[in-house]
Write a structure and sequence with these properties.
Length: 249
């Protein structure tokens, strides 16, 4: 009987792998990233995405994150949300959100690769995450399943989920879910809750100006309120109105 190859054999192979990695640093890094990406790919929420075709999400990752943040700070937190179908959301708000957050929403397949390239270039220039470049589908992926973390692996997951989402859901359904779960203030989620809180009306009756103001604060919903008279809200909502006009909205 041949002797078993023991610890010496194992050590030799480990040393060989280390030597190969040292000699091929770039290729080794690429393989490492691919392995991690493959693992993350198969751990993504396939079944949950399919359920979104017929079920509305009750709790999102963003809601859970905000609740945990409030708990850590010793503050109270309560979700304000009323789900409404897209037929009961003003077209003004749909249009305002598109021109503000994702101008090519109806053209791309989940990811706007031109925006991704520009975002990477801008971030390299600034030496930090200065620009996001996320589509509405990517934002929805983050809100439903991920977090606001700047971790590159989180961003990779966001891209993959967004691409899958676009294959399983219609643009109308993606927009409907997005407008019902997007954050619009401390504990305020969705168009109906935001319309009631800030303008005392329903999402169906949001005016063009109110829609622009709601869209204006989406990037910073905890810092700005759409009914504020602030330089940020006034300037950004004015830009959004100009874009809506240019598009014939």
């Amino acid at each position: 009987m041949k002797p078993l190859r023991g610890s010496g054999f194992l050590k030799t192979n480990i040393d060989s792998c280390i030597d190969w990695t040292r000699q091929h640093k770039f290729r080794g890094a690429v393989y490492g990233v691919c392995l991690i990406a493959a693992f993350e790919y198969f751990s993504l929420p396939n079944n949950s995405l399919r359920e979104l075709q017929r079920k509305n999400p009750r709790i999102t990752a963003m809601m859970e994150q905000r609740e945990q943040e409030a708990e850590d700070a010793g503050a109270r937190f309560a979700v304000q949300q009323t789900w409404v179908p897209i037929s009961r959301i003003s077209p003004h708000l749909v249009h305002a959100v598109i021109v503000a957050e994702d101008g090519t929403f109806y053209e791309h397949s989940g990811v706007d690769w031109c925006e991704v390239e520009e975002s990477i270039e801008k971030n390299f220039e600034k030496g930090k995450a200065a620009r996001g470049g996320s589509t509405i589908s990517q934002q929805l992926a983050k809100n439903l399943f991920l977090s606001t973390s700047k971790d590159p692996m989180r961003k990779l997951k966001e891209l993959i989920i967004a691409l899958r989402m676009e294959k399983l859901l219609s643009k109308k359904r993606i927009m409907e879910i997005y407008l019902n779960v997007v954050e619009w203030g401390n504990g305020v989620f969705g168009a109906e809750a935001a319309a009631r809180k800030y303008f005392g009306t329903s999402a169906a009756n949001i005016t063009r100006d109110e829609a622009a103001r709601l869209a204006a604060v989406i990037p910073s919903p905890l810092r700005h309120q759409p009914n504020q008279t602030s330089q940020y809200v006034e300037r950004r909502s004015s830009i959004i109105l100009e874009r809506m006009t240019a598009r014939g909205y």
